[in-house]
Amino acid sequence: MFKSGKAAPWVAFCIAAFVGASALADAGTRYGFGTPIAPADIAPWNIDVNGLTGAGLPPGTGSVAQGAQIWETKCAACHGEFGEGAGRFPVIAGGAGTLKDDVPQKTVGSFWPYAPTLFDYIKRAMPFPAPQSLTNNEVYALTAYVLNLNDIVPKTAVLDATSLAGVRMPNRTGFIKAQWDTKNIVCMSACKPVPVKITSDLVNLHVTPDEHESGNVGSTSAAMSSPAPAAAAAAPAVTFADVAPIIAQRCTVCHSAKPTQAGFTSAPDGLAFDTPARIKAQGAQIVMQAVKTHQMPLGNLTHMTDKERALVGAWVAAGAPLP
User: Fold this and answer.
1) What is the CATH number of the domain that holds 140?
2) Does residue 170 lie in a domain region?
3) In the listed set 107, 132, 165, which residue is the last one of a domain according to the structure?
4) Separation between Cα atoms, residue 94 and residue 97, nearest integer Å
């Protein structure tokens, strides 16, 4: 409810404007807002490729040999020299015949059903620091190289829109269409109750191995009840001298006033670790991102080890002492 009668004219005006606009819309009258977008403006964004048919593949060509050279400079740091994967980045090649294994290896060669999808993904998303920086010829070359790594095309292959669309992937028929997999009707009526029967009690049997044992289940109970050593040797304190080279090698390639990692012109979020004082000031955030969650380095691009993460965490936990 309005407390002032002065609001009534404004309410009436808004209602009239709304009704008038609705009437114009119903009458098909244009409002005159905006500018029609030209096909040339849409073209840079319209880069999708149909994986099944290859529709949308642009002009261009690239060979396996050319792709090998590009891979070495722009891809191997993340995906390995031969597609074996590095750090957290996925394996690209291999895995043939493993899809029915308990731990299948899903790679481009073993899992992907359509070859043009590989061009589409590389074109729009790779390389990691600078997506869409590759030319069409470079993408065709990399696509040829990856397919060759998976023994799908020969090392002499040269791909273009036509030849790539004609490549038949090993797992092309390995997917089931959704409509074949969703028509089962579950009864869910007159279900027979199934009693729960406990068949063992591992806790009272003392057969769960202690983490300090080497698999000798028979000695577990005794090991769990045995007293700890009277005096354990204290772990040596972690100093900044232990942590500094880790930060320099694993973090400052990006987090620096002058990053050396391709694609970075400044430190992400302004976090630069160029001085001991700056490293100490950001200690808690470094621990959260690199020690606890392992989110940094991004994709573990610089191959930070678990031991290095533990050293950084111990140094911060000790108050991040500086020399």
Assistant:
1) 1.10.760.10
2) no
3) 165
4) 9
Q: What is the pLDDT of residue 133?
A: 95
CA pair distance 201, 289, nearest whole angstrom: 40
More confident residue, 28 or 63: 63
Instruction: Name 62's bridge partners.
Output: 159
Instruction: Write down which residue in 165, 183, 210 finishes a domain.
Output: 165
How many domains does the chain fold into?
A: 2
Is residue 37 within 8 A of residue 46, CB to CB? The reply is no
Element at 306 (helix H, strand E): helix 306-317
Provide the token pair at 272: 């630069």
Residue 87 contacts residue 301 (beta carbons within 8 Å): yes
Tell me the pLDDT tens digit for each residue of 77-134: 999 989 998 877 889 999 999 999 988 999 999 999 999 999 999 999 999 889 999 9
Whether the Cβ atoms of residue 113 and residue 175 lie closer than 8 Å to each other: yes
**Residue 112 belongs to domain spanning:** 62-165
Cα 209 from Cα 83, distance rounded (Å): 38
